[in-house]
């Protein structure tokens, strides 16, 4: 058999793109460990090259993050471009959900880049990546409008964003699931969300920024003031980007006095996590303890969780985004708490549905929780709490 000439299309297709490969490896590591916990040496090791060799492709880690975001954005654009431009709108929506589900399955370790690690992009790169996500939401919303022309424009956007959060949820957990089950389950959930209606929004005003941070009364202890005041800076800039002194200043505590209350910044973060876990446990147990059947318990659980995440979004955002920066012992203890919380949802969904296997119920629960997280924690809230609850039930019922 004749060999293709160097530089021919066949040779080009077989030659690996080292820069793209490094970006993919970096995206996996950033999402698993957090941007600041990953060094260029870690990325080089993952690619099987020496540390200095990475500088042939990137000048620094920030450039790697930008490339990882660009690579994911390009993959999204490719998936969307592959959807037929003609045909019945709902069939095209189905094709869109299929294409995006396959993309998330393929990039399960790195698709979560859209959620937290993009905070660390330079402004121009952040704007470009965000524009890709916004364009994807508009594309799905426009297709939904073709299929459901009487649906209000604002509802199309909300349903589109929620369906995409459901699909992306696979990247937020590590529950073992086959590709076949993941594709079938997530497509069904996404289409179920797109097919639902929404209750009227209680206010027509769209939130254009995060709610004001929690205030601390003058009689609260300094330790408590530190815990509450740390939430907004960590949420906005990330754990590694703020210093203990800055967190102390936010609480009105100067200099080394902060170390009288917490030995390290990681210990302060652990206190935040235990606070969030305790509040969530109390809210959910109080909500369901008087329920007389699984359906009532599930309704009350949804009410409690959405209220917790929507009303205390700073605490919820830090709880969801900074887990990898906890001390190891605290990380293990809190991981167990998180798993038990998810399993409580799964047990109720299985009891209510009756015909649902635990594997599919677990996919639906993670999808529902990710819808709550994305729509509650976003800087631009496009749904109120009652609408989010409706979306949760749509995801759980699909």
Q: Could you list some keywords that capture this structure?
A:
mainly alpha, Tetracycline Repressor, domain 2, Homeodomain-like_sf, 398 residues, HTH-type_TetR-like_transc_reg, DNA-binding, 65% helix, Tet_transcr_reg_TetR-rel_C_sf
Element order: H for helix, E for strand: HHHHHHHHHHHHHHHHH
Number of helices: 17
Secondary-structure-based class equals mainly alpha
Major sheet description: none
Low-pLDDT regions: 1-15
Mean pLDDT: 91
The amount of beta strand, in percent, is: under 5%
Q: Could you tell me the CATH topology label of the largest domain.
A: Tetracycline Repressor, domain 2
Can you tell me the number of structural domains? 2
For the record, the CATH architecture of the largest domain stands as Orthogonal Bundle
Helix content, binned percent: 55-70%
Structural summary, described in words:
With about 400 residues, this protein is mainly α. It has 2 domains: about 20-195, Tetracycline Repressor, domain 2, CATH 1.10.357.10; about 275-395, Tetracycline Repressor, domain 2. Helices cover about 65% and strands about 0% of the residues. The protein has 17 helices and no strands. The chain has helices spanning about 10-15, 20-35, 40-45, 60-80, 90-105, 125-145, 155-170, 180-195, 220-230, 230-235, 245-250, 265-290, 295-310, 315-320, 330-355, 360-375, 385-395. The radius of gyration is 22 Å and the shape is globular. This is TetR/AcrR family transcriptional regulator. It comes from Prauserella oleivorans. It holds the Pfam family TetR_C_24. Keywords: DNA-binding.
